[in-house]
Amino acid sequence: MMDMRFDEATSKFIQSRLGDNHLLLTFEDGVGPYSQHAMMHMQTQFTVNIVPPDADLSDYDTTVDSNLGPVLVKGYSTDYLDPHLSLHSNSSDGSWSLHGDVGVLDDDVHFIDFVTNERK
């Protein structure tokens, strides 16, 4: 079973915006309505997304348990993830990084709120 923990800073940021919406961890491969681009830099990239309750979630067929509730992912993207994930905020510049059992999986995770169009 896969799980994810958000540190205090990322948790507060996301919780203040989440409400009744869905939380996604999107593998940026160009597939689905919430993927912004395909991998162009030869590195694995993820974004954290908030989408409305009536959003099309057909590509997000796997749930990851987290301290913020369920996080939906594209099932095949788990090939690029570890069983234990954590999202950290860098105190020096506010950037986010995704960590797994093996270390840093993505050192520049972006946030997109598709409800309000806020981006970080």
UniProtKB/TrEMBL annotation:
<dbReference type="InterPro" id="IPR000361">
    <property type="entry name" value="ATAP_core_dom"/>
</dbReference>
<dbReference type="Pfam" id="PF01521">
    <property type="entry name" value="Fe-S_biosyn"/>
</dbReference>
<protein>
    <recommendedName>
        <fullName>Core domain-containing protein</fullName>
    </recommendedName>
</protein>
<dbReference type="InterPro" id="IPR035903">
    <property type="entry name" value="HesB-like_dom_sf"/>
</dbReference>
<feature type="domain" description="Core">
    <location>
        <begin position="2"/>
        <end position="112"/>
    </location>
</feature>
